[in-house]
Amino acid sequence: MTQTTDPTLVDPVPAHGLATLDARDVSAWFGDHKVLDRVSLTMPAGRVTALIGPSGCGKSTFLRVLNRMHELVPGASLAGEVLLDGHDLYSPDRRLTDARRQVGMVFQKPNPFPTMSIYDNVVAGLRLTGTRVGRAGCDDLVEESLTKAGLWREVRDRLRSPGGALSGGQQQRLCIARSLAVRPRVLLMDEPCSALDPTSTRRIEETIAELADEVTIVIVTHNMQQAARVSHRCAFFLASHGTPGVIVEHGPTALMFDSPQDQRTADYVHGRF
Ligand code: ADP
Ligand code: MG
Q1: Distance, CA 151 to ligand 1 centroid (Å)?
Q2: Three-state SS across 96-139?
Q3: Which residues form a coiled coil (predicted)?
């Protein structure tokens, strides 16, 4: 058997499989300012969960808690638990890069590295989380990730072009591909379409629907039609009169829209807020 020290010849990225994400009694602060109060939510494996609610009620903060970005904000603190398939995401035994690799994030504004090639942008997802893959494995992962993000056919002949040369919608799909390259178990999306035109938005919604079979998705959206189209479950966040954000109601999307239990949910989903 030949021994190799070639760092490019390492194991392929393992497919982690679907996972349920569970937030239990999550409270979050920025300094003395409490912005989430005992939020509990199960985001089931293989389902799309939409987080809805007015601006400032802590949806983005909640997403950052779910992939351990909140702890990087100076002065930020939190309480409660986040469990990934029953295992503590914040366990001292778990490295931050592992948490990030298993729970990926896509932001509102597409943020590919603009001068980096399309190929390298996808690979950057691996580097950012300390995941090592051989060159052949890399090519396969780039194709796989771009295909899942619905971008492969458009860019396969120009993988060396800069990411910044793509349209806004394509850039967002490139960011989705970058997140998928590490084969996360959960993908968090913070208003991924709000900077995009309707056609690009549709493309991303189609991608979300296809991805839901293999990655648990949590999406923040202000667009109620979008929440109704893409999600299986919804959670309605609210922070009234300066109080910290709470979940007023959560459940299957159809129920939340058709027969909400709380009048405030009814008002919000029907645009009366
Ligand atoms: P949403 O995404 O629902 O609009 P956010 O999570 O962005 O809500 O914000 C919740 C609250 O936390 C707001 O009052 C906001 O001003 C505050 N906040 C968000 N980010 C920071 C930060 N980095 N430092 C201090 N306060 C913040
Ligand atoms: Mg937000």
Answers
A1: 32
A2: HHHHHHHEEEECCCCCCCCCCEHHHHHHHHHHHCCCCCCHHHHH
A3: none
Rounded CA-CA distance 220/205 in Å is 13
> Which residues are found with C-beta within 5 Å of the ion, ligand 2?
60
What ipTM is given for this predicted complex?
0.98
**Does the pLDDT of residue 28 top 50, yes or no?**
yes
Query: Residue 187 has which token pair?
Result: 């993908």
3-state secondary structure of 83: strand
| DSSP single-letter state for residue 156 | T
Q: What is the mean pLDDT of the chain?
A: 91
Cβ-in-10-Å burial (0-12, 13-18, 19+) of 75 comes to exposed
Phi and psi of 79, rounded to 5°? Answer: -135, 160
Token pair 């896509």 is found at 106
pTM here is: 0.92
Q: Is the CB of 60 under 6 A from ligand 1?
A: yes
Task: Tell me: pLDDT of 254 over 60.
Answer: yes
Task: Strands of the chain (E only): list them.
Answer: 21-30, 33-43, 48-52, 76-84, 87-88, 103-106, 186-190, 216-220, 233-238, 246-252
Give the separation between CA 66 and CA 194, rounded to whole angstroms: 21
Q: Which residues contact 156 (CB under 8 A, 6 or more apart)?
A: 143, 146
Q: Which ligand is nearest to the CA of 55?
A: 1
